[in-house]
Amino acid sequence: xxxxxxxxxxxxxxxxxxxxxxxxxxxxxxxxxxxxxxxxxxxxxxxxxxxxxxxxxxxxxxxxxxxxxxxxxxxxxxxxxxxxxxxxxxxxxxxxxxxxxxxxxxxxxxxxxxxxxxxxxxxxxxxxxxxxxxxxxxxxxxxxxxxxxxx
Length: 151
What we know:
- The protein is mainly alpha-helical.
- It has one domain (about 35-150).
- Helix content is about 35%, strand content about 5%.
- The model has no long low-confidence stretch (mean pLDDT about 75).
């Protein structure tokens, strides 16, 4: 009897999982977004400042930033990019990334996910496509990763 209960329970779980995946809303996402790292220029801080200034609703100090291991813009042997959770900011885990970067002698890029850093209300606004948008995290991080050899 117990074996039958396990089989029925697992079958029910599989049915619920399949049904939820089959009937879940699906949002179209443009996966063909491209980003040219040449748009970053030589001064990455100068690139980030006006980009982040476009967002008037973010809490001060939660903007994207680069913590340089040495002089501003100086090359480092590695580059770290911590990506926080959906309801968090860089301060949820700080100073751990700073310490890791210091031990590695690495430059550190704090990024910010779409609609993050502005409190709870804006977090309901972004779509899956917004997270991949050129005005958001992924292309900027990808562009900076593409430039790691130059940092």
